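Appendix C reproduces, verbatim, an entry submitted by the partner laboratory led by Prof. M.T., so that reviewers can inspect both the input and the predicted structure.
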Amino acid sequence: MIKKMEHAMSMLIREIRKENIGNGPREINVRIVGSWVICEMKGNLTNVEKFMIETEEGQQMVHKARTTLVKEIYEDPAKVKKLEDIVQAKLVNVFTDISIKTDIAMTIYVFDKPIMDNSHIKN
């Protein structure tokens, strides 16, 4: 069940990124941990961004634009509803960052309750 949710989240996140940024990440890894959906994305930068990051000023501009844009994407109630429908929980926060040098982005989606009940797992 968790793997199906992780796959569904991965596909939705790729779709949202392509729609709003112009290209999706080359690789996405999604893990659900408690009430968090952790998304690691590799190969995010567009050709224009790769050109821009050749300078320190360009790196700062791309970093700020990317993190600001991703946060704004999830202010759209329709996109939030799609995420919430997959995990059956309410989205309460989104944390995001990108390493320009390694072209790896991380986004953590925080929901109002654990995604899966792990009470059956014995320590």
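Residues 54 and 77 are 36 Å apart (CA to CA). Additional entries are available on request from the coordinating office.
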